[in-house]
Amino acid sequence: MADRPSRRSGSRPGAAGTGHGAAGAAPLRRGVDPLRLAAYEVLKAVRVDGAYTNLVLPSVLRQFDLHGRDAAFVTELASSTIRLQGAYDAILATCVDRPLSKVEAKVLDALRLGCHQLLSMRVPPHAAISTTVDLVRAKATSGAGGFANAVLRRVARQDLAAWLAEVAPDPRRAETRHHSIVYSHPRWVVEELAAAVRPGELEALLAADNVPPRVTLVARPGRAARDELPGEPTPFSPYGVVLAGGDPGDVPAVVEGRAGVQDEGSQLVAIAAAAAPLEGRDEHWLDLCAGPGGKAALLAALAAERGARIVASERQEHRAVLVQRAVRGADGVAAVVTADGTAPPYRHGVFDRVLVDAPCTGLGALRRRPEARWRRRADDLLTLVLLQRRLVSSALDLVRPGGVVLYATCSPVLSETAGVVRSVLEARSDARLEDATGLLGVPDCAGPVPGTLQLWPHRHGTDAMFIALLRKVGPAGSQLG
Q: Rounded to whole angstroms, how far apart are CA atoms 313 and 296?
């Protein structure tokens, strides 16, 4: 439940403009509440432009000049509306006299925002309804405003628990469909997560996906000390801090690039990649899929402490720019290169360590990327798995004999984790799976293949990162372990 904003919950004429991104602000129609309009612009950017919620929110907050409680209100309203879209659509479907596919998209966005205020926030019903109606009238038509008013009055007749009891089927007869509605995940996602998590833990995992994550910072070693950062130390990463409150952009070490915003699970991937034991040379490191750069920046700091240097490689040019920003000022960076990881411009056998943080479904980061659950499709899996296999095989070509490849995904889906590891080992006689369980001091994180690791939001409070450690060996060295 979120607090009400410090501004009054009703409309406030004459406030900041609309729009998002770098475009100039358009005049705000009289009577539209700027907080609801800002949240609407986030939903619109996600729907129309394919934006990521956590990336577009800061620009919208800046554009509307929102801070403190107002910024927190908009963040909760926009992010959690997207997280709970499936549940709200099931409720709206019973309150609308036509299929939701026939409701204008901009009106449906506003109705979802209204649902979240009515059912999951401490906003008075009259304020939630009236401000949503004002928003619909500003973005659509007066007639659409009347439609929204009628629909939201129906929504307001009972609370969220009563609605879910009405619209979700009995779990004894249709468990997947029940969980899909109650926990607002597509059915195929529920099925994939059920196959990956331990029996009896599915509901805890689905519930954890709907809890907004706390902001976690990382102090890049050699450049910042953890006690410089405001907040509580993370339980597993020796470099992390859970931000006590406020804007990370106000933390000097973050502004200077000596620290950054990074989930603890992501930090642990970089730590594991650096901690894997090696014999002989340990000078040349590679991050094969480096964008947007958080892991590369931490690896660069760890490399610099040992006299090693890292090449940060990223296929997409705009993401390579983000990597450049993330590693600015770091001593352990050899180069940031825009290159395809499946056909990289590097000599075979030149690297000692390679991190493959592969593109994946992202179903392990649904707390931070709420739109991923609606944007991804089951059909994406095959394409992603084939890419993941090629990237790991490419990394094995690039690493020297005795060197290591750490494969990581922000997904617990078995085809992206155990499936990729097994298929690579079956295809390569020069790779061996190493036991990664001693690399991190994290309890209860055994992965789906012995020796691999799987982090979980409901157990560890991190993204659901998967970690497997492969060592390059001679042609006779392949074994699953």
A: 9
